Amino acid sequence: MIVATAVCPHPPLLLRELTGVQDVAADLRGVCESAVSVLLSTPGLDRIVVVGGADTSRGEVSGRVPTRIYADAARRGPEAEGAGRESRPPTAEPLPLSLGIARRLLDSVAPDTPVEMVTVAWDASAEEVERVARAVAGRAERVGLLVMGDGGARWGVREPGHLDAASVDVDEVVRHALADGDTGALTALDPEEAADQMVAGRAALQVMASAVVLGGTSVGSELLYADAPFGVTYFVAVWSCASC
Amino acid sequence: MLRLRGREYGPDTTLVMAIVNRTRDSFYDNGATWDDAPAFERVRAVVAEGADIIDIGGVKAGPGEEVDAEEEKRRTVDFVAAIRSEFPDLVISVDTWRASVGRAVCEAGADLLNDAWGGHDPELAEVAAEFGVGLVCTHTGGLAPRTGPLRPSYDDVVRDAIDGTVALAERAVSLGVDPRSVLIDPAHDFNKNTWHSLELTRRLDEMTDTGWPVLVALSNKDFVGETLDLPVGERLTGTLAATAVCAWHGAQVYRVHEVTPTRQVLDMVSAIRGVTPPARTIRGLA
């Protein structure tokens, strides 16, 4: 059963070593670390599971933070700040970005915290989402879930996906759903529309919604961050089981 | 490792040395900082632009008005003292070949003697040792101070520049100059034709491979002007191109008229070389 969740975005620029001298995402990273701290401090957790989007749905994913596929900066500079604490061997396969960012956040907050990592396909159907959600929720009696998912990327003409006003609509639905603990609104997100608006977190957020619903309890929710400072919408939220 | 005014700089740190002429006739600025007030303003401006070193010169490098040692001191010593007072941490270099001038400016607070005429006065290195200051060892190909090149020839100009400057550097160290404070300078244009200076630029890595910190003085020089067929005043772009190549090859100190564009080129090349990170990277990472 899911007793607590945290939602974080997974842009590469959360990796400190990728943004050069300036730590452009310091505020966002701070909020994400707060959310992860809240999740990890949930009393009596039996297991922590991370779910994030990837090309395919898989369980038991492992690997290293994928810095080097974004920049050779991994060899130098401020990287030591975060990467030095990572326990993955450098020869390991790179994690999917979503899980790599989760790994870094977890290592920043509580190094060497044991977690299980799973992916859900970006284009997962409702059935596939449900299957992943059941697997996640059934991992232990009290599961803490870290959900890695981004909002839309089509807010403006300079943004990655160029302007599409519908992006605002999808992001608004997600924002309200995360703020209100509204699992139904997340489950109702249309995969095609979300994909069109480049909402990378659709499937992962739906896994969270379905997994929480399986527990059958009410949700306390808090939206910590919702903004698009660099053209992609980021959400940070924490949910907790009100009666667990 | 380079050490100036007690500070140490790793081999990947580049330093901008801003030229401040106390002359009436220097080729680029035509006496713009001959008077005290504009000279002080020039120092304040280049410091604000991020210059790491200023290089004060009292004698035009090329042929021109006769300036004896006493006049050279009149032009530089009090100015060094005043700059030292206003900027206690600034590295002050003085461009002189005369030991007597070197001694006077060191007493006034200079940190580096830029011996642009390559050991013409052998006592200058002894002054550097005596005062514990740095020394720039320059390749002039045997040219006497303030004379221009007439049909200079070299079997291998780069080899000659390396052998000449390294010999001067080793001599300076043997006299007691801190080896961390000795730089070598191939001296573009000094007893060189444009082909020679272009080759020195192209093969500057052979100089940096010696391990001695390399200073280059490229700013608006004739080899840039002849290469692009441009007069003084229109050579900044060419200067910056040469600066980029020298930076790629690992030169550490850049003696320049224009500080801000030089600093930008050095920072850009440093990032391309991968020795410093870019300032702010967002593109494609959101």
- Output the structural class of chain A: alpha/beta
What would the principal axes of the Cα set say about the shape of chain A? globular
CATH superfamily of chain B: Dihydropteroate synthase-like
CATH second-level architecture of chain A:
3-Layer(aba) Sandwich
Low-confidence stretches of chain B: none
Query: Low-confidence spans of chain A: pLDDT under 50, at least 5 residues?
Result: 77-88
Biggest sheet of chain A: strands, sense, closure? Answer: 6 strands, mixed
**Which fold name corresponds to the CATH topology of chain B?**
TIM Barrel
User: What distance separates the N and C termini of chain B?
Assistant: 38 Å
Which H/E pattern describes the elements of chain B?
A: EEEHEHEHEHEHEHHEHHEH
CA-atom Rg of chain A in angstroms: 17 Å
CATH class placement of chain A: Alpha Beta
CATH class of chain B: Alpha Beta
**Annotated CATH homologous superfamily of chain A:** LigB-like
Count of all domains of chain B: 1
In terms of structural class, how would the helical and strand content of chain B be classed? alpha/beta
Percent helix of chain B, as a range, is: 40-55%
- Rg of chain B, please? 18 Å
